[in-house]
Specification:
Number of domains: 3
CATH superfamily of the largest domain: Cupredoxins -  blue copper proteins
Largest sheet: 7 strands, mixed
Distance between the termini: 56 Å
Helix content: under 10%
Structural class: mainly beta
CATH architecture of the largest domain: Sandwich
Number of strands: 33
Radius of gyration: 20 Å
Strand content: over 45%
CATH class of the largest domain: Mainly Beta
Length: 439
Amino acid sequence: MNALDAATAGTNELMIPDLLEPTMVDGVARYDLSIAPSSHDFGTGVDAETISYNDQSILGPTLRWTSGAALELHVTNGLEDGTTAHWHGADVPAEDDGGPHSLIGPGETWTADFDVIQPAATLWYHPHLMGTSAEQVFAGAAGMIIVDDDNPNAATIPQTYGVDDIPVILQDREFTADGQLSFEIDNDDDGDLNPDLTVNGTLDPYTTVPAGPVRLRLLNGSQARIYELQVSNGSMVKIASDGGYLPAPASIDTLVMGPGDRAEIIVDTSAGEVMLVDANFGRVLELRPDPNLPAAEHPPSTLAAIDMISPDEVDGERTFVMDEVGDGWGINGQRMDMARIDQTIAFNDTEYWTVTVEDGIHTFHVHQTQFQIVSINGEPPPPEDAGWEDTVLVTEDREVVIAARFNSYPNPNIPYMFHCHLLDHEDLGMMGQFQVIEG
């Protein structure tokens, strides 16, 4: 499929994943997820073999959590192979994180239970089994998580799910001549870049929205693709990054998103149709305004107070070098070894991590914590990158220093992960493990 003309209309109605309502048991919100083979028509008239959760044709239902709530999540594996369920961006105990150590065998059910201790944000869930993350996510195993809180500044921002608050899960894919998915791992610097763009599992999509401010919750769930997004016939205001609201709305011309990144933007459709476009693919999503739908308000000038990490509270510094190692990829000269702990961090410490690249294009993702970007090539980040993050783009020309607090959960037995979120690179060894230990 060639790049789509931003001036022409979309042809397939955007699929909106279902919202999964929890069952309340003694004040605990219980969610039941099952992962299994499925089939999905991407808009070609062919049912392609996919993987999904809860009998959706592709992806999984959107989970809506509330800050402060107690959760219980039960995940049943209906695949013939093992899997895990990782809550990407969630601040949870190591035993509930769903990394490679939390194997769910075929026919087994795994349970995670924890409290939601973070503010409003857009997160996601996906498999994280060593060596097969890319293939399972590519096949459709991913879903969005929306965390809500009681921030009064956000009360008037668009928040009606699927109407003016739209999940936008970007995944590039390749198809065989008979319409089936064609997956492969690429050991290249860029990973495997596929020729066809799907949004929520839809090719060439459009959706109908109110004539006014519309919130797009963007998730790059791709195997390796980096997107450069703009808005045609309108403006783009970023209101949130990986870990939640920015201090204030930031008007931007281009939004660059690496694999694993999330961002929330507001676009205004009051003047007519708006196209979300990408530098490589052209049109990504057409927004068709309907004046009969009630419109929300524009975001206020102040969104959230960010507790900035001061240099005075930093207890130590570490350096992470991302590079080729042998016939794969590694960090600090080592490929992933589940029997090796790469970093040990004292509980309640705050650290600076400098992340550099010798070769390739990477996104550096840290489990459990949300971090702040201290500098990019020695300069402070722009306002649109001044919030909480868990994934950051790093290249040979882009050295990044981040600051993180490790004050949520210690665990002497189960590690968290840090890794490249180009899933090809992750599966080929570009991942390490850290433990948070009480002193």
